């Protein structure tokens, strides 16, 4: 059949009229994709590109490249652009062509001055802003990905539309010499492999170019004091930022009172960000974008004792706060450096012309005083040394987009990389990876400063700000970030989705999105971050298509890890969908999966890819969300039956699977099965056991923490599913005396009956009794036996073979 629209409708009998889904729910007709029937894909050659991109402009020199991803074809297109005339950047719009000669769907990563956002289309390519990367879906299901490369030899490129649906490349050259503009194109049957093909090749080009500048020098090697434990504390603790709660009139007493309220409420944050308005600025204008930084010291009016005394007081009153970061703009403040301040007398400055970039008149020109190229490194070194001496150990560096608003070619050429290099090097020297990059999604910054993997990754704002008082912004914020992550996941950053309010009707919605995507959650609370950065799974579904947003993540190793899927209703009406198990990233046909739902606590029967029943039904109202986690099961032969088991991690947590540091199932000849697991946090451990309804806790189970037998009352069968064993690890840990091991992990062992005809045990355990000293029991014993004999702790000495790790 020819590709076309697919309407969907139902009727109860032949005499009844059809009820069309497009009329009753507003969901548009589907599109039929006809793939190659024989499944054989013939890789296109260099000569095939003109048939893929219709009317390909002959000005582009085309070269076929070796793709680093399977089943994809990659091309590099280049053309020359003249050098600057005078001090004005050379700009030119160069036609490219029409993808597929027409396409069905597209996704575009679009750029504002400060951040990126996704835009979707259906049949015509129309952009009102510059695009970074675009993907076009053909009628045969092929994905064509086009990437405009920036940040190499002072050249920027972006994708535009020409009014007819064709792609045009806007190129800007800040160099005095003629340079090359580069566009990368890849095609493939899978969107992610096609996108990875252009991103991996772009990274190679960007890293090669950066290696010739400061970005590639030894200065970016991590100092010895940047220990891995610091990263865990900085990334994985609960943080508090002053911006949304305390506003723009910041003062030391406001911070003290806010922290006291948190402390008195039992909320002990581990990191604090002192946001905008702590600095000494020249408040000559009512517009903060016209005011410059005067001194490193805090504002003497609002911080009368100075920054060092403020930080000392915070740490003394809040010993649970391990990290304190402060905000500043890349140029110092929004208005750069004040020519009337102390800093202007210590460092060489210059006046530059720039566009305002944001606000009601973003193209309005203004003059800003900034630190000159020759003094930028010294400025940052002195500034960060001052902050470190005050007790600050991190920075949030905002308004980085301003280097992209400079209007003269010489300023852009000389200052952009100087500021980016100096900030990267000096922040690493003083703060390790405790730096946040904000408003930095300009192409030149992303490709030049965030692509190379020659330093530990830093937090980087992934989208526009969080606006708690704009109702329509909440689903869009989650939607935009999930789609932006399709691109930013390839950068050397941890995407930061910005802060969110906990007392808000969308609070759980935001929390769920951040948990499954591995974002920061701004007292010593452990953040359970999955191994893989979450991203949107349906790149061609539009925001207004009345479908659920699906965000996929994964935790753990290949095949043994745990697929995670978050679904979010971004529409204003109730939506019901059937989601195939295959939609969860990382699922395979090698095992059955047990799927849990976070909000309903439902547990599925074991599901396998390809089975007709391997579907997840979900209905979500407005602001609704759900998190599905698929746990791979292990199969054991129990004589006349098959037993499936799975470690479910911590129950009741949005990403409880990420709490599992290690998990091993061991089997003994006596028919007992043993689970060894290390947990990153306290909570309720869940274990799926398919034959649990035939067992009893008193007769068939033993569990220990750090080798000590836990109280039987801390073990129970879940009220949500009779196949799930629950262990209250927190209560059990307290019940055995809160043992402390060599690491932060909690060592839990669970022994249970595998076969009903278990033979006498062959392995022994030694126990300490209150009244008789050492006694020996076999691990075939049960809780009932242990309690009957007064056992209070144990040291298990058996070591049966590991069957799964």
TrEMBL record:
It catalyses: alpha-D-galactosyl-(1->3)-1D-myo-inositol + sucrose = raffinose + myo-inositol; Hydrolysis of terminal, non-reducing alpha-D-galactose residues in alpha-D-galactosides, including galactose oligosaccharides, galactomannans and galactolipids. One of its GO terms (molecular function) is alpha-galactosidase activity. Keywords: Carbohydrate metabolism. Transmembrane segments: none annotated. It holds the Pfam family Raffinose_syn. Signal peptide: none annotated. Belongs to the glycosyl hydrolases 36 family. This is Alpha-galactosidase.
């Amino acid at each position: 059949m020819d590709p076309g629209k697919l309407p969907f409708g139902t009727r109860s009998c032949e005499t009844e009229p059809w009820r069309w889904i497009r009329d009753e729910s507003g969901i548009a007709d589907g599109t039929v994709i006809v793939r190659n029937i024989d499944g054989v894909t013939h890789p296109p050659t260099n000569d095939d590109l003109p048939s893929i991109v219709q009317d390909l402009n002959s000005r582009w020199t085309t070269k076929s490249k070796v793709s680093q991803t399977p089943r994809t074809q990659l091309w590099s297109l280049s053309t020359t652009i003249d050098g600057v005339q005078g001090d004005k950047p050379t700009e030119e719009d160069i036609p490219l062509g029409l993808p597929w000669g027409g396409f069905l769907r597209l996704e575009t990563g679009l750029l504002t001055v400060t951040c990126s956002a996704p835009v979707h289309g259906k049949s015509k390519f129309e952009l009102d802003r510059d695009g970074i990367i675009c993907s076009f879906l053909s009628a045969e299901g092929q994905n064509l990905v086009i990437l405009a490369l920036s940040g190499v030899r002072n050249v920027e490129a972006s994708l535009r539309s020409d009014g007819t649906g064709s792609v045009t490349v806007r190129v800007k050259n800040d160099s005095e010499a003629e340079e090359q503009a580069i566009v990368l194109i890849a095609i493939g049957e899978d969107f992610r492999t096609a996108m990875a093909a252009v991103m991996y090749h772009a990274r190679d080009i960007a890293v090669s170019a950066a290696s010739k500048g400061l970005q590639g020098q030894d200065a970016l090697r991590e100092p010895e004091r940047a220990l891995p434990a610091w990263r865990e504390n900085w990334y994985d603790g609960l943080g508090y930022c002053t911006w949304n709660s305390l506003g723009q009139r910041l003062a030391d007493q406001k911070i003290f009172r806010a922290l006291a309220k948190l402390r008195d409420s039992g909320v002990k944050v581990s990191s604090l960000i002192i946001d905008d308005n702590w600095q000494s600025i020249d408040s000559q204008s009512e517009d903060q974008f016209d005011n410059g930084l005067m001194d490193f010291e805090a504002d003497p009016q609002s911080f009368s004792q100075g920054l060092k005394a403020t930080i000392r007081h915070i740490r003394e009153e809040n010993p649970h706060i391990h990290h304190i970061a402060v905000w500043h703009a890349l140029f110092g403040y929004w208005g750069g450096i004040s020519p009337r301040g102390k800093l202007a007398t210590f460092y060489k400055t210059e006046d530059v012309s720039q566009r305002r970039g944001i606000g009601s008149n973003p193209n309005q020109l203004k003059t800003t005083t900034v630190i000159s190229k020759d003094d930028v490194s010294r400025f940052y070194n002195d500034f960060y040394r001052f902050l470190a001496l005050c007790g600050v150990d991190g920075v949030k560096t905002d308004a980085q987009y301003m280097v992209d608003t400079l209007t003269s070619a010489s300023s852009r050429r000389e200052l952009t990389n100087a500021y980016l290099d100096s900030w990267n090097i000096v922040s690493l020297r003083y703060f390790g990876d405790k730096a946040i990059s904000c408003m930095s999604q300009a192409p030149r910054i992303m490709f030049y400063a965030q692509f190379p993997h020659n330093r530990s990754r830093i937090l980087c704002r992934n989208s526009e700000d969080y606006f708690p008082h704009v109702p329509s912004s909440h689903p869009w914020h989650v939607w935009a970030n999930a789609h932006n992550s399709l691109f930013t996941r390839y950068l050397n950053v941890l995407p930061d989705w910005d802060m969110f309010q906990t007392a808000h009707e969308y609070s759980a919605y935001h929390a769920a999105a951040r948990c499954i995507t591995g974002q920061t959650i701004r007292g010593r609370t452990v953040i359970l971050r999955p191994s893989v950065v979450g991203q949107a799974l349906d790149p061609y579904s539009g925001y207004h298509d009345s479908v659920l947003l699906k965000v996929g993540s994964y935790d753990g190793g290949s095949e043994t890890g745990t697929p995670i899927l978050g679904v979010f209703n971004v529409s204003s009406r109730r939506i019901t969908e059937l989601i195939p198990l295959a939609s969860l990233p990382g699922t395979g046909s090698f095992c059955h999966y047990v799927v849990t739902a976070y909000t309903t606590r439902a547990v599925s029967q074991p599901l396998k890819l390809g089975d007709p029943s391997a579907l997840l039904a979900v209905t979500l109202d407005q602001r609704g969300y759900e998190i599905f986690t698929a746990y791979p099961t292990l199969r054991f032969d129990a004589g006349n039956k098959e037993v499936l088991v799975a470690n479910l991690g911590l129950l009741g947590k949005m990403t409880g699977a990420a709490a599992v540091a290690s998990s091993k199932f061991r089997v003994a000849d006596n028919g007992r099965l043993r689970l060894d697991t290390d947990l990153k946090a306290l909570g309720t451990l869940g274990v799926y056991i398919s034959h649990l309804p035939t067992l009893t806790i008193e007769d068939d189970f033993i569990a220990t923490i750090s080798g000590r037998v836990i109280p039987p009352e801390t073990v129970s069968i879940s009220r949500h599913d009779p196949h799930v064993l629950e262990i209250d690890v927190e209560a059990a840990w307290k019940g055995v005396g809160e043992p402390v091991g060599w690491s932060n992990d909690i060592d839990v062992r669970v022994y249970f009956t595998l076969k009903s005809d278990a033979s006498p045990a062959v392995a022994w355990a030694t126990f300490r009794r209150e009244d008789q000293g050492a006694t020996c029991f076999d691990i075939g014993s049960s809780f009932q036996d242990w309690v009957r004999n007064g056992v209070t702790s144990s040291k298990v000495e058996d070591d049966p073979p590991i069957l799964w790790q």
